[in-house]
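Worked example 2:
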Amino acid sequence: MIKRDVLIFAFVLILILPLASAGIFDFITGKSTEQTTGIEANVSNTAPTITSVSVNATVNPSEAGTRGVAVSFIAYDHDGWADLNDSTARLKVTRAGGLTKSVSCSKEGGNIDANSLNFTCSSFDMWYFEEAGAWGLNATILDNSASTAENNTATFTYNSLTAFVLAPSTITYGALSPGNTDKKAANNPTTLNNTGNYDVAVNGILVNATTLVGVSDAGKEIGADLFAISEENATACTGGEGYSMINSTFVPLDAALLNRGNLSIGNETGQSLLWHCLTLVPASATKQTYSTAANGAWTVKIV
């Protein structure tokens, strides 16, 4: 009877051990059923962005001078406004053809929010002679990881200005005698300075001449049609080369140009020179001064 009990116990033990051996032996040998592991995930730097650039849509030139233009922009950094490197804020002003102005910018006031700063750029000058049309703006800034934010979508229009000044204001002739021909003005030439940014093309310079009347004897005249103007000194009085004036009529000077340009350069940049000639002194002219006072001064205009 005892022997049977032993056999039954042994049989039961054999059946149970395969099912429980893993847990039992782990417990016996000291093995753990749990382990810990560390997790790391590196989020890379997010480049900043420039969300907006502000500038007046149109800018008017200042005759013979400069016009200041102010620009500001807002920079955004996902990693916080303090991650923006203020000292790297820059603005470039560009025009088709490669002309570029570079302007520094600085932080304006405190942060707008947790991620944004406002930057104001130094006012830059637009010169009177610079080309009319669309000008581009390129704003940039770096963050502390040297990642770049760039916005080149903003533009402004630089308007066209048609303007000029001339000198001298009075044309004079030296001693004249009745019957004289091809006498050039004593203070030639008249210089036209383009003080705007409009290129005056051929037929764009016109002169309206009036007849000169005697100051002492108004019955004597020197007709407007006896005067000629040329853009070249050598041809001012050459028959058929100069442009003959017509009384009280605007006459276009076909070959004369007045391009925009920086007058400070000299060498006729931004200038046009007009040479005057009296082709004939009437035989009826008497000794006196003749002027435009009675019929009005001559007028030069550009279109």
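The CA atoms of residues 17 and 24 lie 9 Å apart. Confidence is low (pLDDT under 50) at residues 1-21.
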